[in-house]
Each structure stands twice: as structure tokens, then as C-alpha cells.
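Fold sample X.
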Amino acid sequence: MMGTLAGVLAGKKIPTPEDRYWADVEGDIENVNNILKITRIGVTYHLKVPPGKSEEAREALSSYLARCPAAQSVIGCIEIKDQAEIEEMEE
């Protein structure tokens, strides 16, 4: 998911080096009919963007899941919740 989002951000000229782009990820595992299953994945992206690029970063976040092979493989089986903390860098 991070790679797909990074690709969409790159298309908007928003760089994603390690010191400007990372994610915190949590998952919920539940007993479903005596089988342990991953039922939810929560991702919080942390992104430092160039000045004036916050809106483009939000647009990328709103559209990348539809292009993500990993997400598309599990949507319907695992609930995915994502959010971003976007910070504009100083010039």
C-alpha cells in the first residue's frame, strides 16, 4: 500500500524519502468461527510535503487504494482504514 501511494505521490511531484514518508500500521485479529482472522488493518501515513502540496497529497490518499494490488486483493475480507498526518515543510 505504501508503494502504491508513493507512486501516486510521485506523479504529483511529491517526494517520499524515508525521512518524509512513513506509516504506523495496526491490525486486529479476531476469532471467527474458531479461526483466527485478520479483520481490520489501520494505517496512519506521516507525510512531510513541499509548500502548497497538501491538497495534492490528500487527493493521492483518496485515490490510491483503487490502484493498489495488495489492498484490492483483501478488500471485502479485511476492513482497511487509512488516514494521513500531512505537514507542509518550510521553504
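Fold sample Y, listed below.
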Amino acid sequence: MARPLFRHESSLRHDTGSHPERAGRIVAVERELAARDWCGFSPEDSPEATVEQLLAVHPRPHVERIRALSAAGGGRIDADTIVSAGSWEAALHAAGGAVAMVDRLLAGGATRAVSLHRPPGHHCETAEPMGFCLFNSVAIAARHATGVHGLERVLVFDWDVHHGNGTAEIFAGAGDVLFASIHEFPLYPGTGRPTEVGHGAGEGLTVNLPVPGGTGDDTWVGLTEDVVLPIARSWAPQLVLVSAGYDAHADDPLAGCEVTDEGFARIAAAAHRLADELGVPLGMVLEGGYDVDALARSVAATLETWSAAPGPAPSAPSADPVVLRAREHFAARWPVLQGD
């Protein structure tokens, strides 16, 4: 069965100058994937998102702000977030690739798909671009899945080292999106405490799993296997979306975690097995990752994992103290985490 990979040349025209989030990220990823025959995926150009698709998440003044700033030649939104003349087109394709990925997963016969674009999106809140992000592509994709395809439960699993504050804010009151995030804390943007659990219809559907700097493979994998997966199984999402950042890598210059290529493969394998067990599709939207070589290798490791048959679960639960504390913290809301 085909595994589509959505990409577009406009990602290279989002000109950030001398900036960690630069065009070379996409160049490195695509070069690595091409050298591996695209890891079993089939690249194709993404469409542009429609304004209506953007408006399902972002208010019109937000959308018009990005369009107008790009049309005027660009400028800085804040110290980290840059718009250039090519950014409007790039951002439309980044959101459009995520939407097309969902369409293919839910109506087009694919069970695995990816959207590899820039700028990233998970820091962008409902009405505030920030953290290198202009529109929140994974949120637009999730809302497309519920609003257009009629899904009642979507999981967004964010493994970027920075908390996906935008996605958390967008869905904090929503009862149809479960947001789970592993991230370094304290670190930009300063959100993502375990006590931030959502509100109203979404209360309990935000699962924040902060880790200290220096945390490596075993803790990240343990949190995935022994916290995220049990919660997800009990909630039974109809679609799994991954906000896939690779800046928790040991080589990344913007954070302090110590995840390896193998660690990302193990995290990806867990998500792959979850989707297989539930019989639901799995899609990935690229977020961060700023050592371009580590980023390229880790993306390739993810795609190679998803192109193979799901492997077995670990033979024993994690004894990592960070994992055990997280299970204890969330057990009242999620009884599946309670010990025997």
C-alpha cells in the first residue's frame, strides 16, 4: 500500500537568513531520504491549504497578518519568528500538506503518511504566531479530521523537545483531541507542566510529560511505551498524528536532551505499533530539529521504522523514576496507569 510523503519546494523559499530554522533542514532531510530510496515512502508535491482550512483553527486577522506581512516583503513577528516574501506560500503548503496527509489517510487508502515542510507549526497558538511557527499545521490537520471527516477522537503525540504550547492551547477545551507531549522542562516556551490538563470538555485530555535536560533514550521511550500508549489505547483514537520534532537529539544545539537516532526509531516504533494495534492510520508532521545531520538521520529512522512491520512491545515496563512518577501523577485520571 502506498505511503505518501508530502513536500514542496516552497519550503526553501521561507527565507529566515542566519537562523536555526533554515532551508538547509529540508535540503538535508530530502537528500538523506533520497539516498535511502525515500525509506519506502512516495514523495509528491503538497497542495496549498485553503483559507477556509486555516480558519478552522486561526481567526481571520491572524491569517491576514501573515499574508500581508509576506506580501510586503516580510519582517519579524518577534525575536525568533520571521516572515519573508516566500513565507505565505511556504506556510500554505505546510498546512496543506498536513491536510492532504489526513485526506489520504482517511479516504485515500494509505495507512502511513508524512508531511515534511517548513515552517514548523506547533508553537503557533490560535491567534499568535511564535517560536518559528506561523500556522499550526498539525492542529489544522486534526481539526480537518474532525470537522470534515467526522472523526470523534484524534490523538496528537508531540515528541518535539519544546512543548507544543500552540497545539495545547488550541485544543485545551476540546473533547475530541487528546494531546500528549514529551518535552524538556524548563525550556522555551515555559509551558507544559503536568498540572496543565485542559479545561471544560477537554479536561484531562492534555497529558504533559516534562523531562529534565540530559534525559536520554530510555526515559523518552519509557514515557512513550508506559504512559502515552496505555492512555491512547484506553481512549481509542481513530487517527494518530505525530508532531515530530527531532531537537531532543544529543547533537541538537537548542536543547539539552540526549536522545539518539536509535531512540527516535524506538519512539517511532511505539507509535507505529499503537496505530497497528488500534487499526487506525498514522501520520507525521515535521516540527523542529536543528542539527541538520541528526535531523536527517532521525527522520529517515522514523520512516524506515514505519515502512516495516511493527515489532514487539518491550518485554518489561520501565523502572525509570521519571516514568514511574508520571504514571502515578496521571493514574487518577487514567486508571489504566494504576499498578497491579
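Sample Y note: The radius of gyration is 18 Å.
Also: The chain has one domain: 4-337.
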